[in-house]
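A.,

Following up on our hallway conversation. Structure tokens first:
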């Protein structure tokens, strides 16, 4: 039996080697761009929202395995979800990534609990990253870029 860390490493490498939802989307999908200068990671997120639900999402960019696998997992996790669910998932993921915000995370977790569909799934593989603070920015880059894309959505 492989250990949990081996399993997590496998999941991260799988998303890095075979990224999900890779590509671009034409307008009216919104586009946002994120950059992590500490590591040289770049992410572009294309977000197509119809009736408050993520109809489609594509991710482009380049960088380290953590940044790119996190982007792949993010795209997989938010596709088909409502914006409320996506917000809950972002909070949950950022809570997992931030040791300092553990208390805030506990409070946010109650809010996230209102949306029972929100599960981290493969994303839990990234929790080992918190042991390496410099990599946290790699793991959260896709999520911050997603938030930026959501902020650029036209008002419903
Ligand atoms: Zn990186």
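Then the amino acids I'd put at each of the 156 positions:
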């Amino acid at each position: 039996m492989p250990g949990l860390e081996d399993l997590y490493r496998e999941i991260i490498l799988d998303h890095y080697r075979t990224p999900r939802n890779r590509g671009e989307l034409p307008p009216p999908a919104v586009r946002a761009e994120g950059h992590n200068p500490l590591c040289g990671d770049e992410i572009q997120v294309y977000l197509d929202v119809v009736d408050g639900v993520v109809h489609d999402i594509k991710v482009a960019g380049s960088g380290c395995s953590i940044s790119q696998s996190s982007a792949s997992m993010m795209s997989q996790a938010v596709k088909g979800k409502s914006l409320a669910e996506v917000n809950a998932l972002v909070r949950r993921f950022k809570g997992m990534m931030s040791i300092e915000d553990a208390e805030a995370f506990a409070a946010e977790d109650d809010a996230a609990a209102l949306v029972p569909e929100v599960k981290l799934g493969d994303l839990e593989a990234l929790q080992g990253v918190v042991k390496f603070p410099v990599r946290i920015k790699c793991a959260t880059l896709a999520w911050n870029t997603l938030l930026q894309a959501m902020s650029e959505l036209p008002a419903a």
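Helices lie at 4-17, 65-78, 83-97, 102-113, 133-151. Curious whether your intuition agrees with the design.

B.
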